[in-house]
Amino acid sequence: xxxxxxxxxxxxxxxxxxxxxxxxxxxxxxxxxxxxxxxxxxxxxxxxxxxxxxxxxxxxxxxxxxxxxxxxxxxxxxxxxxxxxxxxxxxxxxxxxxxxxxxxxxxxxxxxxxxxxxxxxxxxxxxxxxxxxxxxxxxxxxxxxxxxxxxxxxxxxxxxxxxxxxxxxxxxxxxxxxxxxxxxxxxxxxxxxxxxxxxxxxxxxx
Length: 206
Prior knowledge:
single chain, alpha+beta, 2 domains, 3-stranded antiparallel sheet, two-stranded antiparallel sheet
């Protein structure tokens, strides 16, 4: 039995991390093989303590992705001729591939509106997914409804399964609100935010 067959045999009912360690592989390789062959974790594994999401009375929600057969709102609509004339020279020719095109399962880092950095993994043509959600769902399936995926050490770039946990919306709100800090520190944070806004306002007016 070769390595790929061994991965596919063990993947539904065993931890991806354990499979990778036993076979001396990178865990991303294990995920990529499972993804390529459309092999998923079994329901029995996802309900087991080993999966890390064993919660009494909590049912998994459906994946938060477009369903198969979803039709884009602009499908079948032609680009206005005047727009086409302006942009036609920028189009890639048939078969042309950009030199910096990312390959499937490549990982990149992007920042959200707050400046927090997150890892993203390419899972298909022009299709990216948050890396920490990807590895969690590869191992455990969809995140239960009413819960969010959180980083235990608050480092959004530390996407190891050991550093991820699902918590309720309420708990997530408590963790991310200023109220979790002592009163003196809350006052300092408020004053700091006011000062930053004042400085930014002056810079924009210069």
